[in-house]
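Weekly puzzle thread! Below is a chain. First person to post its structure in token form gets bragging rights.
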Amino acid sequence: MKILLVYPQYPDTFWSFRHALSVISKKAAFPPLGLLTVASMLPKEWDKKLVDMNAATLTDKDIKWADYVFISAMVVQRDSVKEVIKSCKRLGAKTVAGGPLFTSESENYEDVDHLILDEAEITLPPFLEDLEKGCAKHIYTSKERPDIRKTPLPMWSLLNTKKYSTMSFQYSRGCPFDCEFCDIIILNGHTPRTKDKAQLLAELDALYDRGWRDGVFIVDDNFIGNKRKLKEEILPAMIKWQNDKKFPFGFLTEASINLADDEELLQLMVKAGFDTVFIGIETTNEESLVECNKNQNRNRDLIASVKKIQNYGMQVHGGFILGFDNDPDSIFKSQLNFIQKSGIVTAMVGLLNAPRGTKLYQRLKKENRLLDESTGDNTDYTMNFVPKMGHEKLINGYRHVLTTIYSSKQFYKRVKIFLKEYKPRKRKGLPQLRFRHIKALIRSIWVLGVLDRDRVYFWRFYISTLLKRPRSFPMSIALAVYGFHFRTVARKYTKTPIKDIQA
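Winning reply:
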């Protein structure tokens, strides 16, 4: 059996990091972890080939080679998915699909031969059994939550790691919180399920043995969902592994803001090599936090929490949302002020949308305010419901926020604020300087310092950092490249006249 695993293309969004990747000569930010894991669940004797359309071109030859084409995708990849399915049908290839997109809207994909929904550890085995018997069904679904301690290692041999800026693996699934707008708890449940220590170390060994020596994204919904296990078992093991291997990896992950409340956990994460954490801040308005049931963010000084994490040596990436029913007219100014004062360089500000199946989706449906399905990209100016603020006022305010925080002047100012708070942990030895690092530096100087129309801000920042904070210089250049990407995407979005944006 010949199996082609296809990961459809992401559109050009803030989350794609496409323009930043082009500066460092990479094709994609992260590998398709789900498909690589599914590949390990398939019979060993089957031939397997992976095409990540974010890193390579899918050809008719690829599709003709396969007996079955396996597709996995997020909602934001919907348009590319349709093209892939169309090509498969044109060439007579049978399709098998799964992942968040197909699980949330399976009724839209009747033309897919087999839908493997929910979590593959449960739904893939019966499909494979039926396929062998010649009686495979159209849909396989289950609400049972698998024990991810039995999940196999991803099949890294299918991947050309040189095309990616960051590798990834998963330690846990599920989140203990219940935010109204979030579909994670629908897909993965409330109770965090974790892998064991030996399994996690095997994941690290697998990446190390493939020759990877760079950033690793732990893709968990909320890495700190089980704090006790982290502190007693997992992080001490990671610290020992990193020390034994002379710290080949820098980790980034997602966590809730209550990370700031646990100093022991912060210390252990930094010792283990965590240098970045994404946190859903969402809003500065207390009433909006109540509205969306983001209780973990309430009744606290959010800026102080962010700065505490920065002081321990981790950069905070922040997620922000505009468009809550309780957002006052002043929300745009308060969001701007918070982002600048907090020094959150990578501030992902999006409009509220209601993913299918969420409590928000159900509430808005009852209120007859739903318009359409979410695009999966909350930064493209679209909303799938009628906002209480008024669409034009909200879009104008949102546009003002984006154009301000991603402007070169404000962006570089924010980086400087961050660097004042950021206190990276000193480790034994120095990171090995490789040719690709030098190449990336030269290219970043060319793109940001010569070609970019805002190059004057870059050079002021470049010289200032080199003179005043030389230890932070590599990170500073990386952040400048991120800023170039955000600025480029923001300009693309803001060119769209408001009258042409879906109301």
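Puzzle host: Confirmed. Bonus trivia for everyone else. The first strand starts at residue 2 and ends at 7.
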